[in-house]
């Protein structure tokens, strides 16, 4: 965007972050006038002992406790779970939702909150952009991964179990009331999840920085996020119990979340969402694989923006040594080098190409038929609105193929548009 | 332009665009393909907040029709342009529908994946309706459809004369 153009930015949220940030949770609840939280989480989080930790923090502070617990959020939550959650809420007496978990738990809490607050029983009527009528119940989020940034965003995506479609909700009312970033929640994450979710956060920052809805506010958040990820994702993998690094990654993911909540994401996510849905490949893994070539696709439109991210990603030395006009290409290279580094630090658990992802029979998880299907499905993914260049089915297929084999996309394949 | 003049201008543009969507569905393969993705009895409305002007399109029993103002029911997908001035910048082709939507000037009530199809249809229709130099600003990526001039002529004929 150039100066003088209209933009809007919303971040109506309180954030508490620190090595012991959760110790302040009782204070946070009190200051918001809340005392009867319904905890929403999943079995993985419970097994990791995180709910107990929070329980004891609440208990220690004047005997506060969860009013009740809803811990049956599945990894891929759908409208059935949301309906259960709403029923659960209406059967008890609660004054807020407390979501503890990763993307699925947080999106479930957000979508559940729509039904809870409006008293309606069908989410269908609320899908879309700016289609939620007013403020929702207070929602406090404690993320247990550093990647989705969903604790900061205005977006929730839920599977519609009946209609077999995805329901997307996007409204400033969905931004949680408060987020608490505490590294004790992410310290036990495996290397594979740390690496993949870190790539997701990086994709949010990068895509919000090049998308059509970019603006000076979201830019600042995005650039800082890129810098923090570049510094602290490697440390989080080398020393998983380094609290400082874990906290910085939570912060980065949150910053990237605020950025993309306002500027949205584009091509990497357009293809990534569909690859995830068709082949069941984890979201963060798709992000890591697709980032370089999806950016190369946009080079002719977004070269200067892509180039501006070289400094935060690769640091001063590289950025000063490379002539400015080479910054865009160099950024894509730096991204690949960074990814390679993360791949090694994660003990090869972060795949760099789709062809390396194999099932138990050692066949590739993504088949040529899948690629055709993914390219077709991508026509309906709303993140494509925000991509700087329009993209055809054939072009998506080309980006996918390059990312599958790990070669560079031929830029001549891209039909260059006209609009600035 | 004053408010009244803007309203008249937009009403005319909505009418032409709505009729042209119907005509393009008869004329252009890509537009037809987009509508094939949509369910039967699907209706779509693009209008200015709060109560118009606007256009409504309905797919019914395999055909796509522009619904005259006043005869439309509730739409499955409603794209609501948030103000008259936003409507004007969209329909004086200063920015594309995708850009308008991404800048938060359009609220979308309904399935966003259907909205993707509709935005592509509108872009395609604008390529037919407008001279190249203007259409380039109005759409995200300008691609000349095959036999553009012949189809453009057909579409204009249908806008003006088809029932
Ligand atoms: Fe993501």
Could you name the CATH homologous superfamily of the largest domain in chain A?
Dehydroquinate synthase-like - alpha domain
By secondary-structure content and strand pairing, the structural class of chain B works out as: alpha+beta
Radius of gyration of chain A: 21 Å
The main pleated sheet of chain B reads as:
5 strands, mixed
- What is the approximate shape of chain A? globular
Structure overview:
- The complex is a heterodimer of chains A (420) and B (163).
- By secondary structure, chain A is α/β, with parallel strands linked by helices.
- Chain A has helices spanning 25-31, 43-47, 50-60, 79-91, 103-118, 191-210, 216-238, 243-263, 267-279, 283-297, 299-308, 310-314, 316-321, 327-345, 368-377, 393-405; strands at residues 14-17, 37-40, 68-70, 96-101, 128-129, 139-143, 155-160, 165-170, 178-181.
- In chain A, α10 (283-297) packs antiparallel against α14 (327-345) and α10 crosses α16.
- Chain B has one domain: SCP2 sterol-binding domain (Nonspecific Lipid-transfer Protein, Chain A, 2-Layer Sandwich), CATH 3.30.1050.10.
- Chain B is 53% helix and 17% strand.
- The longest helix of chain B has 25 residues, at 3-27.
- Chain B starts with a helix and ends with a helix.
- At the A-B interface, β5 and β8 of A face α4, β5 and α5 of B.
- β5 of chain A pairs antiparallel with β5 (106-109) of chain B, so a sheet runs across the interface.
- Fe (ii) ion binds at residues 200, 203-204, 269, 283, 287 of chain A.
